[in-house]
Amino acid sequence: MSDLRVLDADGIERAAWAWDRHESRELEEYRAAERAALAAIEQADLGPFWEDFRRTLFGLTESREALVHWKAKHGDMGHKAERAAFGAALGLFARDRISHQQFVALVRPMAEVLPWLLPDAPPLPLR
Questions:
Q1: Model-level pTM?
Q2: I need a labelling partner for 21 at 20 to 30 A (CA). Which of 30, 39, 80, 110 fits?
Q3: What residues does each domain of the chain span?
């Protein structure tokens, strides 16, 4: 969460680019990982904790009190970056309850901005 607070406009643009690059090609894999993570969270009775976390994330990126850089990138680009951030948050939240492949599917776009998410997969060059 703290990384999103310091993400600048370039980081938000890169997250949006990464969403297009990775998930537009593999959206079904992402959706399946998303469903698995949400099911695992519910099965572990962590639904209310995830919902609080998700609301906090939404507050940082989309609400009236959103961070300045996120407000500046509101629109299609901002929404793509939000989807990347949401996926990474979901992956981190459910990491111990989903497969590594599902984790990678969820965090891959945001790992282009935050390489610590997937340290064995260096960020791709922008094209």
A1: 0.83
A2: 39
A3: 2-113
